[in-house]
Specification:
globular, about 70 residues
Length: about 70
């Protein structure tokens, strides 16, 4: 039994921006906090995580920092 996985890996959308598709996702907002915490712990400045699309058990996140 594994947790959510990134399908196809993150897609680079810029030097400090990625689109990440994950599945299965039950509570999409939980992963917003998880990704933000990871960015903050790694020293990223001005991290931002937003849900771009949610369909069934799949969610696409826009992950960015400065």
């Amino acid at each position: 039994m594994g947790g959510p996985s990134a399908r196809g890996g993150p897609r680079r959308a810029g030097p400090t921006r990625y689109a990440l598709t994950c599945r299965p996702v039950v509570v999409a907002g939980f992963y917003v906090g998880l990704f933000l915490a990871g960015l903050e712990a790694s020293g990223a400045r001005h991290p931002s995580v937003q849900i771009v699309r949610r369909e069934g058990e799949e969610a696409v996140y826009d992950i960015a920092w400065r």
